[in-house]
Design a protein that fits this description.
Elements lengths: L12 E2 L6 E2 L3 H35 L8 H31 L8 E3 L1 H18 L3 E5 L7 E3 L1 H18 L5 E9 L4 E9 L3 H16 L2 H4 L5 H11 L3 E4 L6 E9 L3 H13 L8 E8 L5 H13 L6 E4 L4 E6 L6 H18 L8 E9 L2 H13 L6
Helix pairs in contact: 1-2, 2-3, 3-4, 4-7, 5-7, 8-11
Length: 388
């Protein structure tokens, strides 16, 4: 999201030797120094949690002998709490990276049912332990969406978990897959009925109010549910409280359909909408200079992604072509092309089998204000940039 400028005189400190003012924020520098240690601890914490979950699953399946109903319930509690702790770890890592301005969304086209399947087992187990009725409704075949599937699924789990924590006994939760053609997105409609729906409605309002706050301020007010809203926004998604009914609260979680023009529109709006800071955005088209096999196409996409900065984006048009947005001036496009070529040569030196062909990169356009966005998108729609 839009960043708060680091050039703040309030945070400047004068060097007694040079007389120069340093604008680095001590707390952020300290966090950056501790980040590698935190990442190592997170990695070490995941291994035992995974083992606990796997053993609980094996015991529940009766691999070590008969299991009573009460024992199955206890094993479900163990698996549920171990999963919660694992998500706390992942959420802490993401919150830390966002605070350090180092978060990157690994967004790509994916299917909405695949996103739902990643979260469904966890939230169904949680609902069963709390004796809450939870129902999933599969919609008509939805178009592909563009998001980081793992982060989006975790955000859904966090939000449903927060709902389960505040709704009362006897409430009913329905998660429906839907497509919003007007907004060019597909997503989930989360409806809660019965006791506690007023508290759930307040939770939903808090999420949408968080989404409306300036990007730099949102970082200061994270909770698990608010972090979920932040992850959805950083995946070019949208959250909205639907009109309330008596005893019913409804939240919409939408993700952009995997259409290059819509994805670019949302990405450009996100980068250029900061009221106090203009962002220069350069749009490029990358293409293999020779046909490639499927594995090479995947590797080429990974290579391009590895060259991107935190506010850059690559959208795969097909196996050979990508649209790339750089949150930099046009002058930096040549530097990006040199970086891609350097890493391609490094990959080919270690690569067995077919080497990756050269990737040609050419300028499509640029913008640095919201007024430029419609002009650039109109040019893309009317040009062969996205055509097969």
């Amino acid at each position: 999201m839009a960043e708060q400028s680091t050039w703040s005189l309030r945070s400047g400190r004068s060097n007694p030797l040079t007389g120069r003012v340093s604008h680095r924020r001590p707390e952020r520098s300290r966090m950056k120094r501790l980040a590698p240690i935190a990442d190592a601890l997170v990695h070490d914490a995941r291994a035992p949690l995974t083992v606990i979950q796997e053993y609980a699953a094996l015991m529940r399946e009766g691999l070590f002998g008969p299991v009573t109903n009460e024992q199955q319930r206890v094993l479900d509690v163990i698996a549920d709490r171990a999963g919660d702790l694992g998500r706390v770890v992942d959420n802490s890592v993401d919150a830390n990276r966002i605070a350090l301005r180092a978060y990157r969304s690994w967004a790509r086209p994916c299917r909405l049912p695949a996103l739902v399947s990643r979260s469904r087992t966890t939230v169904e187990r949680k609902a069963a332990l709390r004796q809450t009725q939870l129902k999933f409704v599969t919609g008509e075949a939805a178009p592909q969406i563009f998001c980081d599937e793992e982060a989006a699924a975790r955000a859904v789990i966090n939000i449903v978990s927060a709902v389960l924590n505040v709704c009362g006994d006897g409430c009913r939760i329905t998660v429906s897959e839907e497509t919003d053609s007007d907004q060019r997105e597909a997503g989930l409609r989360l409806a809660v009925e019965g006791p506690g729906s007023e508290l759930v409605a307040a939770l939903f309002r808090d999420l949408t109010e968080h989404a409306a706050v300036d990007g730099a301020q949102r970082v200061k007010r994270f909770s698990e549910a608010r972090l979920s809203a932040e992850l959805i926004l950083r995946n070019l998604g949208r959250i909205e409280v639907r009109p309330a009914e008596a005893g019913r609260a409804t939240l919409w979680i939408g993700f952009a359909i995997a259409d290059p023009v819509e994805v670019l529109r949302r990405h450009l709006v996100r980068l250029t909408s900061h009221p106090r800071r203009q962002r220069h955005v350069t749009l490029l088209r990358a293409e293999f200079e020779a046909p490639v096999i499927e594995q090479s196409a995947r590797d080429g996409g990974g290579l391009l992604t590895s060259c991107l900065g935190r506010d850059d984006l690559a959208f795969e048009l097909d196996d050979n072509r990508w649209l790339v947005t750089l949150a930099r001036r046009q002058a930096d496009a040549e530097r990006f092309e040199s970086l891609v070529e350097h890493r391609r040569e490094a990959v080919n030196r270690r690569r067995l089998g077919h080497p990756l062909p050269r990737i040609s990169i050419r300028l499509v356009g640029s913008c640095h204000s919201p007024a430029d966005i419609s002009r650039l998108l109109t040019m893309i729609e009317s040009s062969p940039v996205c055509a097969p």
